[in-house]
Amino acid sequence: MENNSAIVGYFRKLSPIFEKLIDKAFEEKIFILSSREFFKEASKFMCLPKGDMERDIAAGHFPNMGMDKIIIINWPQIKKIIFVEPGTMEYGFAHEISHNLTWKKRPGCAKDISFSGEQFFIPCAYFEILANYEGLRILKQLRRELPAFGKPVFRGRETTYSEILRHYGLPEKYIGRCRKCRGIKSNCLKRCPKEKEIKKLAKAIEKCKI
Q1: How many CB atoms lie within 10 A of CB 84?
Q2: Percent share of the chain, pLDDT over 70
Q3: 38 in a domain, yes or no?
Q4: What is the structure's pLDDT at 32?
Q5: How many distinct structural domains can be found in the chain?
Q6: Each residue of 21-72: pLDDT tens digit?
Q7: Domain span at 37
Q8: Are 18 and 139 within 8 A, CB to CB?
Q9: 136 and 94 Cβ atoms separated by less than 8 Å
């Protein structure tokens, strides 16, 4: 498997942060693929939900296909966003790196075996907020490495990554989401086993000023 050199080269030129994020991904042996490349390869092994192909950016863990750590880029969609909200994409890329690094921490109740006999992951509030937190930690580290760390741009103005998250109602949204997770019912649980940890991570993110 090879990285998509066109996407990698494009991202490297976008900002010093993106260049560092690409280096971080390669350091962690994470491959960067277009959604078309991924679905072409994945279709040889399984049938994936059609909605997955519409996502802008996503992490993947498919060791049975030789893709343990990957970031999937929906290139047509990303091109529409990146010039308007480059800060969102910088944060989003750090978020997906974090998913790759924390995959083993995904709770067992975040699985659904009802889809074609395969195990597919339920959107998990804990796994997402953990990637929020770890993504901010990655950006904080990169900030130390860059002598002229510029503030991220969001909708034409300089801001912070934590402010971008708050614009989308995060991380507070995950607290409500964990209480409605379908994994609770399908796994015969009374409540989300990670609710307390989600609340702690939400408080830590709220204090972040990056």
Answers
A1: 12
A2: 92
A3: yes
A4: 97
A5: 1
A6: 999 999 999 999 999 999 888 888 877 666 555 678 999 988 888 899 999 9
A7: 3-205
A8: no
A9: yes
Tell me which residue has tokens 């030129």: 13
Rounded to an integer, what distance in angstroms lies between the CA atom of residue 203 and that of residue 200?
5
Q: Tell me whether residue 210 is in a domain.
A: no
Whole-number CA gyration radius for the chain:
17
Return the HEC string of the chain.
CCCCHHHHHHHHCCCHHHHHHHHHHHHCCCEEEEHHHHHHHHCCCCCCCHHHHHCCEEEEEEHHHCEEEEEEECHHHHHHHHCCCHHHHHHHHHHHHHHHHCHHHCCCCCEEEEECCEEEECCCHHHHHHHHHHHHHHHHHHHHHCCCCCCCEECCEECCHHHHHHHCCCCHHHHHHHHCCHHHHHCCCCCCCCHHHHHHHHHHHHCCCC
9 vs 1: CA distance, rounded Å: 17
What single letter denotes the amino acid at residue 148? A
Whether 74 maps to a domain, the answer reads: yes
- Pull the structure tokens for residue 197: 């940890």
Distance, in Å, from the CA atom of 7 to the CA atom of 166, rounded to the nearest integer, reads 28
Q: Is residue 133 a part of any domain in this protein? A: yes
